[in-house]
Q: What sequence folds into this?
């Protein structure tokens, strides 16, 4: 068993505190030259380990492999974002975890691999599920109500509010009653107090 003559404990020699203690204390405070040598060696080793670790963290992104996205998968997700899951509550197929959404994504992927265009794939799902499957339905037929309904409602509410406020502002306000002598005296007293 080796007993060191170094007055610094293991905890003090470790880390930044040990480095600061070495810088602050004078060399004469150590009991033996062997203790000084061990402490200096420990600090130098700690600095090299720290620098080596930091260089690994800074160099890691340089050696990291570039992530290449599969173009078919990217197109699958782009198409799936425009389609509504038929069993979910207004959720796109790309974000849904239901079995139907997984099947729909698989069908999209298969049809893309078969060489079909985006419009052909969307038409396939519209033929199968109707315009409901589209997150943005077309502005034709029954879809017109969906697009024009909010605009018509906003127009009716805005027009009604305009005429209501216009009629209300036309009603004259009742005349202001004249002040009594007692009230006039109170006003004069309040003004005198403010002037002082």
A:
């Amino acid at each position: 068993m080796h007993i060191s003559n170094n007055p610094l404990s293991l905890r003090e020699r470790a880390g930044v505190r040990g480095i600061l203690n070495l810088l602050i204390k004078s060399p004469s405070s150590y009991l033996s030259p062997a203790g000084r040598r061990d402490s200096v060696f420990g600090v130098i080793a700690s600095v090299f380990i720290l620098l080596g670790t930091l260089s690994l963290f800074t160099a890691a992104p340089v050696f990291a492999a570039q992530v290449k996205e599969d173009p078919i998968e990217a197109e699958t997700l782009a198409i799936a974002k425009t389609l509504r899951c038929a069993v979910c509550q207004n959720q796109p197929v790309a974000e849904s975890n239901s079995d139907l959404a997984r099947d729909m994504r698989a069908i999209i992927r298969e049809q893309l691999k078969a060489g079909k265009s985006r419009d052909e794939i969307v038409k396939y799902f519209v033929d199968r599920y109707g315009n409901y499957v589209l997150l943005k339905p077309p502005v034709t037929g029954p879809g017109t109500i969906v697009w024009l309904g909010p605009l018509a409602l906003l127009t009716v509410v805005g027009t009604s509010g305009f005429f209501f406020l216009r009629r209300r502002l036309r009603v004259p306000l009742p005349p202001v009653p004249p002040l009594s002598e007692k009230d006039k005296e109170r006003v004069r007293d309040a003004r005198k107090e403010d002037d002082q």
About this structure: The radius of gyration is 41 Å.
